[in-house]
Amino acid sequence: MKCRMCGFEFDENELENRGCSSCGKHNCNQVHCPNCGFGNSPELGQEFEFITKLKNRFNKNESENGSI
Fold it and tell me: Which domain of life is it from (predicted)?
């Protein structure tokens, strides 16, 4: 996972204190960056990946059709 705040890359599965143990909230489902402590949402990362794939597909179709 790459932290959306500081850009630090880390493996969220190897974190000792993951999620609520770092921020004190209950059921927040966030993964806190070991570098800066920012709470990253895994679901948000999946949504961004999906949107990026769609955007790339549309851009590819436009360039193949000669559209600007």
Answer: Archaea
